[in-house]
Write a structure and sequence with these properties.
46% helix; globular; 12 strands; single chain; Rossmann fold; alpha/beta; 2 domains; 5-stranded parallel beta sheet
Length: 406
């Protein structure tokens, strides 16, 4: 079976799909992963076919300030994505697997080509009474309020994609159709969406429609050993604290480097600081600055993990069974930060905008010195180890062609 996975965004938005793709390839399928050119090496290392999607999630380098400017950049990004997503599907596929970020465009490609499709989401975006919308960081508003807020959040997504969808449908020869109308159609058809996160972190809401499932994480492929420099540093003293903000903090590298060094010193801990998009760099005998490393190999060796609470990093920290210090910045990060705290595996989130060396040092001390956090994280890790998210996707694929032909 020819499978095309589409994913857009930063490294954390794309890397899980390499693990999913490799697993499907091992099952005998021909798998291609369509994403940005900046991820071509990541995809190629896994032995998957790479297909380029337009747009660069790191374009510009500097942070965008102001709601209007952010909206304009987001619309530009979506517009570029819409103009390219039909092209990557042209070589043909039996199944389209659509990520959270590509589904609002991919639905229309699947309709035009008659290709079977399914969602493979990293976030629980379907409205529910059990929690508020994932993006926006809203706290629970009660069952009715949560559902209403969730629908409003999807409305924002549909408005953001409106122009790109109209252009795409015209290009594909399809009649006009709004995003909300497409969502209603998919709900009636019980379009399948498999969510690649653990029920140890978010259980499947009881009020979700049939076809929406939580299956467990898809872990990035190509995980390997740590570099000798890292192994030597780990062996030279007690377990350090990891600090990394992934794709967040662009333009604040100097401030975050200084803050991280001061916090580690005040907490009396060694540290491993990841450069990330912000370009953190700490020069100290007790702190090692690293580039991109395999979280699965590194995190179990840490005393605690300070991170931005992106979906993939939050899951990797929990999988490692170590306490987290979540420092959420934007989008779905406040949601995952609160989930880690709710399951007892993290200290209370420290919002990025409120981060100081003093607050970070106090949070690190609480995480390292609190045995209950490590116990809860270890219990969650044991539960995650029993899940087979990629295997569940493989099972779904066996039924999809029959559904398309019915």
């Amino acid at each position: 079976m020819r499978i095309l996975i589409t994913a857009a965004g930063s490294h954390g938005d794309v890397a899980p799909y390499t693990g999913l793709g490799v697993r499907l390839a091992e099952a005998g399928h021909q798998v291609a992963l369509a994403t940005h050119r900046s991820h071509a090496e990541l995809v190629g290392r896994c032995g998957l076919e790479f297909r380029p999607l337009p747009g660069d999630p790191q374009a510009g380098g500097e942070p965008v300030r102001g709601k209007g400017a952010m909206l304009r950049r987001a619309k530009q990004f979506v517009g570029e994505l819409g103009r390219g997503i039909a092209e990557v599907a042209e070589p043909g596929a039996d199944v389209l697997l659509l990520s959270t970020s590509t589904a609002p465009l991919g639905w229309h490609v699947a309709e035009a080509t008659g290709t079977a499709s399914a969602g493979v989401y990293l976030q629980p975006v379907e409205p529910t009474g059990e929690f508020g919308p994932v993006v926006g960081g809203a706290r629970s508003l009660g069952r009715w309020g949560n559902r209403m807020a969730g629908r409003a959040a999807l409305g924002v997504v549909d408005r953001l994609h409106r122009d790109a969808v109209a252009e795409l449908r015209a290009r594909l020869g399809l009649p006009p159709l709004s995003g909300s109308a497409m969502r209603r159609r998919l709900a009636r058809e019980q379009w399948p969406v498999l969510h690649g996160f653990s029920s140890a972190l978010v259980r499947r809401p009881a009020d979700w429609r049939p076809g929406l499932e939580v299956v467990g994480n898809w872990w990035p492929a190509g995980q390997g050993e740590l570099p000798d420099e890292v192994e030597e540093f780990l062996a030279a003293g007690p377990a350090p604290v990891f600090i990394g903000f992934g794709s967040m903090g662009s333009g604040q590298g100097e401030r975050l480097s200084r803050l991280s060094a001061e916090a580690l010193r005040a907490a009396g801990r060694r540290g491993v600081v990841q450069a990330g998009w912000a370009g953190l760099s700490v020069d100290s005998a007790d702190v090692l600055t690293v580039g991109r490393l395999d979280h699965a190999a590194l995190f179990p060796r840490m005393a605690a993990v300070v991170h931005h609470a992106g979906a993939g990093t939050a899951a990797a920290a929990l999988r490692a069974g170590v306490p987290s210090v979540p420092v959420p910045v934007t989008a779905d990060q406040p949601f995952w930060a609160r989930r880690l705290t709710a399951v007892g595996a993290a200290v209370a989130p420290v919002p990025f905008a409120e981060l100081t060396a003093e607050r970070l040092a106090a949070a690190i001390r609480s995480a390292v010195d609190g045995p209950s956090l490590r116990h809860s994280a270890a219990a969650a890790a044991a539960r995650m180890a029993k899940e087979d998210g990629a295997g569940r996707v493989a099972e779904l694929l066996a039924a999809l062609p029959r559904q398309a032909a019915a």
